[in-house]
Write a structure and sequence with these properties.
Number of domains: 2
Order of helices and strands: EHEHEHEHEEHEHHEEEHEHHHHH
Radius of gyration: 22 Å
Strand content: 15-25%
CATH topology of the largest domain: Rossmann fold
CATH superfamily of the largest domain: P-loop containing nucleotide triphosphate hydrolases
Number of helices: 13
Structural class: alpha/beta
Shape: globular
């Protein structure tokens, strides 16, 4: 049993919080499954994740929102600060429940059963993070229904072994949809999930950060970037997101978006290629537009040129 300790919310997450407000985590920071701690700017969803970690009450947690909005990084950076080990799985259409439970492997000339991420998390009190859960077959996910509620985990393949879930075991899922499928057509492969499964999850929307938060992210994660350049990059990102999400008068005009993840990549690459004839344009190509259709690539670069003005063709 791992030793727990209390963490002060304001100091641990560098946020405004009531004095004396604490959250429970683990004392040992050396566990190999604790995520790597990185600079991070927390926003309002921190409250929802901490409330879930403190008392799940038989629920799972489902974070839903557009690609690159920071759903997974939010969970991992909270876990990193609370020394909470994580078993992270990226779901896909061929993933089966048995892959999560474990498998038999040959070791030292004999066959033995090796716990999968679900069994490990349930046994040891880790977070099980299922990324892109809405890409997985709903029939396979049905096997999680009772487990999310706290029922014992039965490993039928391992002589029916029964694992009583650790009190700190939690199930967290992320997805671009909220489980009802993707009517927008933005995310190929997304499947409508079972209502029985979804009924067992709290759902927390995670959108792209607001202007102030993204400015804070750039200051924290790319401190060498001039603030004026960063503000214009965010303006470009927001216009691209608007066109991607169909908020323009003509409907959805882009099939690629400039997520927060891509924004940070663009900023870093602009510094990497500082001194090039047009570092902003060159970096944007590598960060995003090289994978866009030619007409969309031209449209995005035109948006950026309009926002940056004379800076667009100036060496940094």
């Amino acid at each position: 049993m791992m030793t727990t300790q209390r963490f002060t919310v304001a100091e641990t997450f560098a946020v405004a919080a009531p004095r004396g407000l604490t959250v429970e985590g683990f004392a040992d920071p050396t566990h190999p499954h604790i995520p790597v701690r990185k600079p991070y700017v927390f926003r309002e969803q921190l409250r929802d994740v901490l409330a879930f970690l403190a008392e799940p009450a038989g629920d799972g947690l489902y974070l839903t929102g557009p690609t690159g909005a920071g759903k997974t990084s939010l969970v991992l950076q909270i876990a990193a600060r609370l020394n909470w080990p994580v078993q992270e799985v990226t779901c896909h259409g061929r993933l089966e429940l048995s892959d999560l439970l474990g498998q038999f492997v040959l070791a030292g000339g004999e066959t033995r059963f090796l716990d999968g991420p679900l069994a490990l998390a349930a046994r040891a009190g880790h977070l099980l993070v299922l990324n892109e859960i809405d890409l997985m077959d709903p029939a396979e996910l049905a096997g999680l229904n009772d487990i999310v509620e706290g029922a014992p985990l039965v490993i039928a393949a391992h002589a029916g072994e029964v694992i009583a879930p650790h009190p700190k075991f939690r199930v967290i899922a992320t997805g671009n949809s909220a489980g009802a499928g993707d009517a927008s057509g933005l995310y190929p492969g997304v499947l409508r999930q079972s209502l029985a499964l979804l009924d067992r999850f709290r759902v927390v929307p995670v959108g792209y950060p607001d202007l102030e938060t993204e400015q804070g992210l750039l200051r924290t994660l790319v401190p060498a970037l001039p603030e004026g350049i960063g503000a214009r990059m965010i303006a470009v990102a927001n216009e691209i997101r608007r066109l991607f999400q169909g908020e323009a008068d003509a409907g959805r005009e882009l099939t690629v978006t400039l997520s927060t993840r891509t924004l940070l990549r663009w900023a870093r690459l602009a510094l990497t290629f500082k001194g090039a004839p047009n570092p902003l344009e060159y970096a944007l190509g590598q960060a995003l537009t090289a994978r866009a259709e030619p007409a969309q690539r031209e449209a995005i670069h035109r948006i950026a040129a309009d926002v940056f003005g004379e800076l667009w063709s100036t060496r940094s």
